[in-house]
Design goal:
Chain lengths: 336, 336
DNA sequence: CTGAAAGCGCTTACAG
DNA sequence: CTGAAAGCGCTTACAG
């Protein structure tokens, strides 16, 4: 015996399918008595409305799609949890898709979601204005997360990378550090370039005379290690290193330690992200914490609004998720 | 203008909708020429078949559901990535649902997936035979992951916890450690109890005379710290501590360090999981690595088989994902 | 090879 | 309040 349909319930309750539908969806236009009888019949038959049939007729899937570059790692883990929680709270299902190596794969994934979702949460390094125009259905509510958005009017959420970087530079300056070097992230990476921008800007406005020094990196621990070796060779040597992410900061500290340099006594080192490991390295890492889960939650909230009430969210709405300074031993600050 | 339907394509290509359907689904029973014309029309109209309509008629959603206790953290992050990759490879969409605080919430989530998925990947601490009988549709292909399965014949994947724990105990014994204490995980947790079982079994078979000592814990770093303090107070003191997970091992090491005890010279400490942090603590942690992504991949594979070919997977099929010893400094082994 | 028609399970005007 | 009927967009026997 297959799953019960609305017809079975109608027969069992001796009413028409129309009444069953009405009773089970809010109950307007049905006597309390009939409604009760219908509900009992549905329960007895373990009736669950067929999702596809309902989608077809209501044009609503009650599902949102999340297209992410990856699912792995601290960042995505927290992001997807924030999204999931917010979706759940709104009674929405979550369809995920990730790991698109190139723009073509991302486009395919995007297309495949068509008709399966009421809205889209999109984070993709491949997405630019052109890509979006090509691959996003016109009328599908969409919120971009940490994605290039020059030339688009989609709603967008992003991490306040420059603000965070500025906080860090101000912190280092306040401790008396003068020669602050910056380890860059991968070129073309938006987070990385915004962090660098914040670094430059903070130096320019607070300490215009101080040297601006950037070292190549790609977010990997190894690249941080190599940057650390470069720091060792510089004359005059920087008295602080600000890495565009924590893993590079950790790699950098390893290089300094191997050379017998004490952190933070001889050189301060700090990062960005506040990965869990940051607390556990020696010395614990001063870094910038970003509320990633909030990024997911807020994006979902914005998307939910658009879905429920198209037009309720102004075109091109932008929001930033705040970044906070987390002071630990590696920057040489007196710890309370 | 809304999305094009099959009718629009039929009109554009001057054929019936039946031909469009045939041409676009494999093309059997259509001349190459007609098929070509139809494809061009579809492309021109940017036609994408309406997913819901197709689901309704084919009874296939091309979607699998993953019901997980959480999405956050190393373990789930890796698990879901393994699942996602395997699902992608089979052209299946992935619907996720998580964070069910109790059995009732899990049941609701399970029901909500009905009709939306062709199969289910299920990991739930709330799921026992009774729960499954109550809440799983009879004929829905399902694979259980790391879930209690006494009394069920669902297919199931699980981590080889006892095997891993046995490896660790054998490793410690081979290094000459005699009094090996074990820090337990939360009571009722399947992974935790299997690891403890492996610990006891390995001691019983390889070193029946050695003391069996268990200390309470709940997988949190704090509980490991407290267990570490208990270890310090014991006489005779254990010469090795095996924690049921890495975070407790890390907490334990912190307690020992504060008391001025050297790891591994005075006491060896090791964990289970190989979280990324394990490499970075001082000293680096000897632990058991589990190929979590494999768990997800294999589960997906088993599920895919069941979906494609019901009956092709023997009822009650069980598989275990292997666990490997990762030797680092904390166990006092000579590192190559 | 091609098309007209039935039907998947539901919701929603439209009558009564 | 209640029911008969149309229709959402698709696929698939069934004829031709």
């Amino acid at each position: 015996m297959s799953a019960a349909t609305i017809k079975d319930v109608a027969r069992e309750a001796k009413v028409s399918v129309a009444s069953v539908s009405r009773a089970l969806n809010g109950g307007r236009g049905v006597t309390a008595e009939t409604s009760q009888r219908i509900r009992e019949a549905a329960l007895r038959l373990r009736y669950v409305p067929h999702a596809a049939a309902r989608m077809l007729i209501t044009r609503r899937t009650n599902t949102v799609g999340a297209l992410l570059p990856d699912l792995y790692g601290e960042f995505f883990s927290e992001l997807i949890r924030g999204i999931d929680l917010a979706a759940r709270a709104r009674g929405l299902h979550l369809l995920v898709s990730s790991s698109h190596d190139d723009a073509a794969a991302a486009a395919v994934a995007l297309r495949a979601m068509q008709g399966r979702v009421d809205g889209l949460l999109l984070m993709s390094p491949h997405a630019d204005a052109d890509f979006l125009r090509q691959n996003l259905p016109q009328d599908l509510p969409t919120v971009l997360m940490n994605t290039r958005l020059a030339g688009t009017d989609y709603c967008a959420l992003s991490v306040d990378n420059d603000g965070g970087a500025r906080l860090m530079v101000e912190h280092l300056l306040s401790l008396g550090h003068q020669r602050i070097a910056f380890i860059q992230g991968p070129s073309g990476n938006r987070d990385a370039s915004e962090r660098e921008f914040g670094y430059r800007e903070a130096l320019a406005s607070h300490a215009p005379g101080n040297p601006v020094t950037t070292l190549g990196g790609d977010f990997s621990e190894e690249s941080g290690y190599r940057a650390g070796q470069q720091v060792l060779a510089m004359r005059p040597r920087p008295d602080a290193v600000f890495a565009a992410n924590d893993m590079m900061a950790i790699g950098c500290m390893a290089a300094l330690r191997e050379a017998g340099i004490c952190v933070p006594e001889e050189i301060a080192v700090c990062g960005f992200d506040d990965v869990p490991m940051a607390r556990y390295v020696t010395p614990p890492l001063t870094t910038i914490q970003v509320h990633i889960a909030e990024l997911g939650e807020q994006a979902m909230e914005l998307l939910g609004k658009q879905i429920d009430n198209p037009g309720s969210v102004a075109t091109g709405t932008r929001r930033r998720v705040r970044a906070e300074l987390v002071v630990r031993a590696s920057s040489g600050a007196p710890i309370a």
